[in-house]
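Students often ask why inverse folding is considered easier than folding. One informal answer: many sequences map to the same fold, so there is more than one right answer. In these notes we will look at a single instance of the problem. The structure comes first.
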């Protein structure tokens, strides 16, 4: 069997395992200890159903996000000066990171930051934007309906894997942008108000290749109260991730 054929078969098995969950078992290693931790979900795995199913939430949080945390801790374990820096600052100063770990920190630090934000901005019975947040959405993004349309369009145009975000400045101005892979606006020194994950593992069990359906359904689980809290923290300069 050729090397490339073996690569294809192994890659396919790993991808299948990620989607199928515990039906396919691989050897497990102890998670490296370190400064970065995976917080539990702030709701049950099935709380966002039917828009996001419980199995997707379990796999996405417990396996994908945990892997980013494990890999990030492994990357910084011999770099104590990096391990002591808040993740937001690490990502804003990637160019200053040791070259040997820069790619690992970019991919896994970005994945950890993006997912930490992602779990926070979702929840059941998310309500609607109100107060200063609603005013900013109207002023900067043309209102909620236009935001949804433009956001979904941007998410649909992401080639392969990535994210779509709404960023916020210290003076409260909102903007829309997308990023590939696990990149984040934090890497550009910006603040993230909220964002949606358009990697296939975020939606494939329910939506298969229908990313537009997932993007449309996702608005049903946006926790606008939490987004409003993040908006207030951003304008106060206290938003952590």
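Output (designed amino acids):
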């Amino acid at each position: 069997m050729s090397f490339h054929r073996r690569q294809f078969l192994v890659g396919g098995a790993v991808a299948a395992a990620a989607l199928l969950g515990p039906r396919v078992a691989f050897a497990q290693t102890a998670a490296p200890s370190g400064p970065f931790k995976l917080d539990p979900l702030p709701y049950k795995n099935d709380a966002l159903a039917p828009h996001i199913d419980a199995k997707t939430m379990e796999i996405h949080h417990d396996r994908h996000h945990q892997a980013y945390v494990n890999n990030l801790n492994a990357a910084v374990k011999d770099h104590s000066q990096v391990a002591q820096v808040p993740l937001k600052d690490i990502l804003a100063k990637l160019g200053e990171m040791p070259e040997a770990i820069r790619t690992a920190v970019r991919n896994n630090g970005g994945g950890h930051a993006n997912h930490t934000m992602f779990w926070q901005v979702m929840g059941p019975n998310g309500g609607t934007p109100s107060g200063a947040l609603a005013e900013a959405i109207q002023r900067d993004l043309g209102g909620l309906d236009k935001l949804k349309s433009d956001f979904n369009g941007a998410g649909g145009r992401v080639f392969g894997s990535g994210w779509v975000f709404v960023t916020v400045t210290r003076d409260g101005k909102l903007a829309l942008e997308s990023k590939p892979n696990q990149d984040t606006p934090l890497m550009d020194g910006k603040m993230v108000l909220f964002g949606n994950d358009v990697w296939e593992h975020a939606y494939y069990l329910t939506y298969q290749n229908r990313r537009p359906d997932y993007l449309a359904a996702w608005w049903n689980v946006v926790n606008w109260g939490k987004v409003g809290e993040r908006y207030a923290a951003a304008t106060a300069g206290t938003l952590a991730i």
